[in-house]
Amino acid sequence: MNVLNQSFGDKWAMYNGDCVEVLKGIPDNSVDFSIFSPPFASLYTYSNSEHDMGNVKDEEEFLQMFDFLVEQLARVLKPGRNISIHCMNLPTSKTRDGYIGIKDFRGDLIRAFQKHGFIYHSEVVIWKDPVIAMQRTKALGLLHKQLVKDSAMSRQGIPDYLVTMKKAGDNAEPIAGELDHYAGDEDFKSTGRLSIDLWQRYASPVWMDINPSDTLQYASARDEKDERHICPLQLSVIHRALQLWSNPDDVVLSPFGGIGSEGYESLKCGRKYIGIELKESYYNQAVRNLQNVELEIKNDAKNGSLFGDEI
Q1: What is the pTM of this model?
Q2: In this predicted model, what pLDDT tens digit does every residue of 29-52 receive, in sequence order?
Q3: DSSP secondary structure string, the chain?
């Protein structure tokens, strides 16, 4: 296994290296579920490494590199199991692309998985506040002054998506049982049919109740020297995916481990975790986060409390 650094805990392993190369050392059909947020093509550049999929000139080059990853994911994932990808469509710019519009990045990812035999299984739209997006990006199409000037250029905000792809074949270990707790910040009131009420909320094609600040870099104590992840995945999104598509003690994989968000929630939910991260500073922060949550779980068990009850 070609790695720069590696760290291990009781139920987790974190590798610092190229995700494609590291995955070559993972056995066939050994992963139960995978969830991750890939680099958004060339929208953000995380490092100057030639192995960084975000360090590309355009979407075409990104998809060429991403194809090698999907090939490995198809090999290591168990038949009948799922991969959830957090993504968004990409805004274009006049300077970089020659026009102002939106690129179908979400569709590109779906087609990349279908090429390797995956089934387009499910997706949910994650609502984002267009006012916040306007304030942060100053996107022409979101400005009210553009609406007044010429609304032909006005557009809606760009949401996030959680796209889930299924590997063909029969699932040998059913993910069975009722939902027993709600993942999210909003007050949730059950009618007395808890699992049914939760499922009706989770089954919605649009999740309106995801707090954009519900991320690991806000949830965990951080020193000033710690580097912030550019676009970490919300913990409640990860948690819901784990509830829906994995069993306790299942192996959860993230090939773009970042600061360890998927691993943090996996351990809290009683799963095992394999994370891979190319950027050393993110890898180091992920290891600290995984060690901290592992210690919290052990302390809670020692004190006789169930960690899951707090979720």
Answers
A1: 0.90
A2: 999 999 999 987 554 555 566 667
A3: ---SEEEE-SSEEEEES-HHHHHTTSPTT-EEEEEE----TTS----S-TT-TTSSSSHHHHHHHHHHHHHHHHHHEEEEEEEEEEEE-EE--HHHHSS-SEE-HHHHHHHHHHTTT-EEEEEEEE---HHHHHHHH--GGG-HHHHHHHGGG--PPPPEEEEEEE-SS--SS---S---S--SSS-----S-HHHHHHHHHTSSEE----TT-SHHHHS---TTSPPPSSPPPHHHHHHHHHHH--TT-EEEESS-TTSHHHHHHHHTT-EEEEEESSHHHHHHHHHHHHHHHHHHHHHHHTT--GGGG-
